[in-house]
Design brief:
Elements: H1 7-29, H2 34-69, H3 73-88
Helix pairs in contact: 1-2, 2-3
Length: about 90
């Protein structure tokens, strides 16, 4: 996986999202308005989606291309389909 994505950048994004989630939990505990909490949930969801896009893009540019170049088209397409299915569940 290290050749597919910038592990450091993705990890940094995920840690930021983790902080967002902790902030949302504090908002709930502090009885903040529902509308404000929903805005922050939407922001965290969008950040997680963007991170997924980054991982999927890396998968396409490296794993998928390598699989096709090596002549493993069928297996590569199955793995790509599975990855896209997983990513589509994030939304």
């Amino acid at each position: 996986m290290r050749q597919c994505i910038d592990v450091e950048a993705v990890t940094k994004r995920l840690k930021r999202i983790e902080g967002q989630i902790r902030g949302i939990a504090r908002m709930v505990e502090d009885d903040k308005p529902c509308e404000d909490i929903l805005v922050q949930i939407g922001a965290a969801k969008a950040a997680l989606h963007k991170t997924g896009q980054t991982v999927l893009e890396g998968h396409l540019h490296h794993c998928v291309l390598d699989g096709v170049r090596e002549g493993n088209e069928e297996a590569t397409l199955k793995k790509l389909t599975a990855a896209i299915e997983q990513f589509s569940r994030i939304v």
